[in-house]
């Protein structure tokens, strides 16, 4: 499943990222924040408007906002 499909408060490991779907500067920013293959993440909450954008993503002890288009480029496996 991709990260955008992960339910709120569920934890997952990022197993693949299709960097070709992202602009180079966006990919660089995500990597700098630790959002890359092997990272354990959790969706804390989603935006309240129709597009449910942005997504509040917990990475380690940090919470960052990412776009749904970024989340769609990431394949994850849920951690139970």
Automatic annotation (TrEMBL):
<dbReference type="InterPro" id="IPR008988">
    <property type="entry name" value="Transcriptional_repressor_C"/>
</dbReference>
<feature type="domain" description="Ferrous iron transporter FeoA-like">
    <location>
        <begin position="1"/>
        <end position="78"/>
    </location>
</feature>
<dbReference type="InterPro" id="IPR038157">
    <property type="entry name" value="FeoA_core_dom"/>
</dbReference>
<keyword id="KW-0408">Iron</keyword>
<dbReference type="Pfam" id="PF04023">
    <property type="entry name" value="FeoA"/>
</dbReference>
<dbReference type="InterPro" id="IPR007167">
    <property type="entry name" value="Fe-transptr_FeoA-like"/>
</dbReference>
<protein>
    <submittedName>
        <fullName>Ferrous iron transport protein A</fullName>
    </submittedName>
</protein>
<dbReference type="GO" id="GO:0046914">
    <property type="term" value="F:transition metal ion binding"/>
</dbReference>
């Amino acid at each position: 499943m991709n990260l955008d499909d992960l339910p709120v408060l569920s934890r997952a490991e990022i197993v693949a990222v299709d960097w070709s779907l992202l602009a180079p500067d966006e990919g660089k920013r995500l990597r700098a924040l630790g959002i890359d293959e092997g990272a354990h993440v959790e969706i804390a909450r989603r935006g309240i408007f129709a597009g449910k954008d942005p997504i509040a993503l917990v990475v380690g002890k940090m919470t960052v906002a990412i776009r749904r288009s970024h989340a769609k480029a990431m394949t994850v496996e849920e951690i139970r």
